């Protein structure tokens, strides 16, 4: 064999070994930092019911807060080891890019520009949403098509600014924007009469309506004018941390699909179902392959719950928002929430 052929053969052999050798992931920069600190730093909304909201004792509730608790449970074995950092829409991506936080879980829409030009990567979709309009019932408006010439309260630094401009332009209508820096200011502006309409993601509209002195005085119009997949994001460049945050959410989705809950997870560890056994770490080394313990998913479900549990508690019928699962139901139940298999 000529020297060149020997070299090609040697490289092919090395490539084959590399492609098929599977072992524990090398610790990434973010994982190392979180473990050394003993705490996950999570960027959240300054206060949005159902997503992230502190109570009078400083305890954070909401589905976005629970996403971070799931990551903490997976990485540190304790869902309570989270420091929540409230961020405005303008601050959120900068805080992640600069390393001020380890994960951003703040009702943030996954878009092309954010995912490709801002140094962040979205790890999944926690909530499939869409932009809508909140109006006073006294206006007698029943459709967004009747809003020509309206003044509209908008949160700055969000996709809602672009979406509403696109919608009115395509419909041949005009509007006057009234821009605010945070959700509370937007809600107050609407209630004080500074604008006729408040626009945001529909889930946020239901949450903001609860903050009005008379929630029954306002109604959400039926039109949904955009796609708003909301989910956590991490800094680009740390593939291991990306995988951990992504699979923390996927573990919760798979747990719901497999019928594993916070109440029965200990019993399920004795299951003969190979899918359940891999998820809970009874079989295999899937946790160690990510640099975690094999009980990473067990800790998430035990301490935080599966996806259905955190949805129901924070957004569903057991919450003040009373939001139907809709698109956020599992794919087996008519929705589009779907996670790759744990294997």
UniProtKB/TrEMBL annotation:
CDD domains named among the record's database cross-references: PBP2_BztA
Q: Name one Pfam family in it.
A: SBP_bac_3
The signal peptide stretch is 1-27
Q: Which domain of life is it from?
A: Bacteria
InterPro entries listed in its UniProt record: Bact_solute-bind_prot3, Solute-binding_3/MltF_N
Where in the numbering of this chain does the Solute-binding protein family 3/N-terminal domain appear?
A: 39-268
Under SMART domains, the record lists: PBPb
Q: Which GO terms describe its biological process?
A: amino acid transport
Q: Which UniProt keywords apply?
A: Signal, Transport
Q: Does the keyword rRNA processing apply?
A: no
Q: What PANTHER family does the database record attribute to this sequence? A: AMINO ACID ABC TRANSPORTER PERMEASE, AMINO-ACID ABC TRANSPORTER-BINDING PROTEIN YHDW-RELATED
**Family membership noted in the UniProt record:** Belongs to the bacterial solute-binding protein 3 family.
UniProt-recorded name of the protein: Lysine-arginine-ornithine-binding periplasmic protein
